[in-house]
Write a structure and sequence with these properties.
Number of helices: 7
Number of strands: 0
Order of helices and strands: HHHHHHH
Mean pLDDT: 92
Number of domains: 1
Strand content: under 5%
Largest sheet: none
């Protein structure tokens, strides 16, 4: 898709930083084609999807209207999920680094006991990598 006039691609890049670089344009265009502005995506990600969930949980037929309708709400919920998956991967990488550091001084059995997992799981936990790319700051801490 061609760049749409008036679209601040830098702003979209920042908001979608949790996405792999090769996916951002497609995701951005999907939002734009559905009439979802970057500010709304930023707002939904900044509160971790709380307002989106609260609206859906009301059970009202028109709950999605404030977010641009059901399609926009579905896209926004998918983006919250993508951010959550990214943060989970980032946390797993930190856990791997910490577990590897523990294994330098302790046995796998001792590490397992401290972490409350099996000895085999300790080895599984060491497989993550901090090489990312990961976002440095979560959306709700952005200036």
């Amino acid at each position: 898709m061609a760049v749409q006039p008036g679209v601040d691609t830098r702003e979209w890049e920042a908001i979608l930083a949790h996405r792999p670089a090769d996916q951002r344009r497609t995701v951005r265009d999907r939002f734009l084609d559905s009439g979802v502005p970057v500010g709304l995506v930023q707002e939904v990600l900044a509160d971790g999807g709380d307002a989106l969930y609260a609206a859906a949980a009301t059970g009202r037929a028109d709950w999605a209207t404030a977010f641009g309708g059901p399609l926009a709400a579905a896209l926004l919920a998918a983006e919250v999920s993508a951010l959550a998956a990214h943060l989970n991967s980032r946390a797993s990488a930190v856990r791997a680094a910490a577990t590897n550091a523990l294994l330098e001084d302790l046995s796998a059995v001792a590490v397992a006991a401290h972490l409350g997992v099996s000895r085999q799981k300790v080895y599984d936990l060491t497989r993550g990598s901090l090489s990312g790319p990961y976002i440095d700051v979560v959306p709700w801490r952005q200036p």
